[in-house]
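Field log, afternoon session.

UNIT: design team B
ACTIVITY: writing a sequence onto a fixed backbone
BACKBONE:
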């Protein structure tokens, strides 16, 4: 017995050493494989330990550096995140169009941190499931459905306006706009009156969505928390798990209640909303979405349409505050179009052309989702003879692409005239909602809300910058400001 114990005690360290050696060799093998795959794509020289992460950070300096590299290394170049992990970064439209023209799935490594919340909805699903569910969800964004949401958007914006009328000090607008979009989303998704813009004691579902959004951003910024077992042992990890459970519980209750309502109510007794369409959609075989699929799509739409829309609105307000001459011109146009009416209406939105140009230019400079990624399911041939191999993670920097010096004159300047209807430009040069089969299914929903919110705010308030707190763009899941977006608000 003693002999067996002695052999065991001596053998364990040897086995551990062998395991460590095998693990190290496998990591170096992965490094050599990636180097071979990316041989045709020159790029900035990485350090061994840090890769390119020290200079290609998520802050504004790193994003601008990425835009500079987009000219130096045409098309795409490798970005190393350490000694053993790398992906291709595409920064030119001619390359991005090949990557985004197919239905390759999202890169799971980039988006996996959200899966516990949004499950296998449109953002993360692939293959037949994605294709089927995309077709089933498309009617939810039909123009006749969007028209029903106009009154919801105006009502939510009136709540914001009432709060801002009492403002004396500069306001951090992203927080306020985020609550506005969350309020609108809940009304459009569920027909639920949340009062989240005014109540401090929020409904558990509202608090859960707010906490999860914040905790995902914090997790992204902490590399150690990318390891699941470390994260879920942390205080933030436990909070995240509880918040996800709360969201899913209430989502399931709401879905169950709506199923019962659809069975008992009279047809055409109310406007159809997003949840109604999910519950009644049928594929070619007569099969609908399961409860889990509906929950995943609801949570996905909440994630994709909440803070990203808030980002687009907030950065547009920032740019108009920074350029008062454009702000004044927008205000004149809005007043002319709306006239004596209390609120903008559906037919007014297309008439506010200059305001829309200002929004487009803002989303060019500050795209709400600055980076997207794919995992190639097959090789992608590029025009210059190079090929992106199968099984490669590929990022597309929308931020760098929309500031590419080969395409845009003075790319860092805010110039709404770039989007004059007299100028013809390929859609691949401007893609804040992505392009191709996996583009943002809710982009018209978002644009409708953004145009209404901008019109109502600019009609009622004059905006100016807070000189003591300049915004600092930062790329997380969406484009935020590291120190907030503070504006002075004055009633007109």
């Amino acid at each position: 017995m003693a002999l067996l114990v002695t052999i065991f005690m001596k053998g364990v360290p040897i086995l551990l050493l062998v395991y460590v050696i095998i693990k190290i060799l496998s990591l170096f093998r992965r490094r050599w494989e990636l180097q071979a795959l990316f041989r045709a794509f020159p790029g900035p020289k990485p350090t061994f330990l840090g890769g390119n992460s020290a200079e290609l950070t998520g802050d504004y300096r790193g994003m601008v550096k990425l835009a500079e590299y987009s000219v130096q290394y045409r098309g795409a170049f490798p970005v190393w995140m350490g000694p053993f992990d790398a992906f291709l970064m595409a920064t030119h439209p001619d390359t991005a169009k090949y990557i985004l023209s197919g239905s390759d799935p999202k890169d799971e490594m980039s988006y996996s941190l959200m899966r516990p919340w949004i499950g296998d909805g449109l953002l993360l699903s692939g293959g037949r499931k994605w294709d089927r569910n995309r077709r089933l969800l498309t009617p939810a964004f039909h123009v006749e459905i969007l028209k029903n949401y106009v009154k919801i958007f105006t009502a939510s914006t009136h709540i914001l306006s009432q709060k801002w009328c009492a403002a004396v000090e500069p306001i951090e607008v992203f927080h306020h706009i985020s609550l506005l979009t969350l309020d609108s989303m809940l009304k459009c998704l569920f027909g639920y009156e949340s009062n989240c813009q005014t109540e401090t004691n929020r409904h558990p579902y509202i608090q859960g969505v707010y906490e999860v959004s914040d905790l995902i951003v914090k997790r992204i910024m902490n590399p150690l928390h990318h390891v699941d077992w470390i994260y879920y042992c942390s205080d933030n990890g436990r909070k995240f798990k509880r918040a996800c459970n709360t969201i899913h519980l209430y989502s399931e209750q709401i879905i169950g209640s709506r199923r019962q309502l659809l069975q008992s109510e009279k047809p055409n007794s109310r406007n159809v909303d997003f949840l109604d369409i999910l519950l009644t959609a049928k594929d070619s075989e007569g099969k609908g979405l399961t409860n889990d699929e509906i929950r995943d799509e609801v949570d996905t739409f909440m994630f994709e349409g909440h803070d990203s829309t808030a980002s687009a609105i907030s950065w547009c307000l920032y740019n108009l505050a920074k350029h008062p001459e454009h702000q004044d011109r927008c205000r004149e146009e809005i007043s002319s179009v709306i006239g004596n009416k209390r609120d903008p209406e559906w037919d007014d939105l297309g008439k506010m052309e200059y305001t829309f140009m200002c929004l487009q230019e803002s989303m060019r400079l500050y795209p709400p989702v600055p980076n997207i990624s794919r995992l190639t399911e097959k090789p992608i041939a590029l025009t210059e003879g190079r090929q992106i191999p199968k099984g490669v993670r590929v990022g597309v920097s929308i931020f760098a692409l929309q500031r590419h010096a080969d395409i845009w004159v003075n790319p860092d300047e805010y110039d709404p005239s770039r989007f004059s209807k007299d100028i013809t430009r390929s859609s691949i040069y401007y893609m804040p909602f992505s392009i191709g089969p996996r583009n943002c299914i809710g982009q018209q929903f978002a644009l409708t809300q953004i145009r209404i919110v901008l019109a109502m705010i600019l009609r009622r308030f004059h905006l100016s910058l807070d000189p003591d707190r300049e915004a600092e763009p930062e790329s997380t899941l969406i484009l935020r400001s590291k120190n907030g977006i503070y504006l002075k608000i004055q009633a007109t």
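LOG NOTE: The radius of gyration is 25 Å.
NEXT ACTIVITY: expression trials, pending approval
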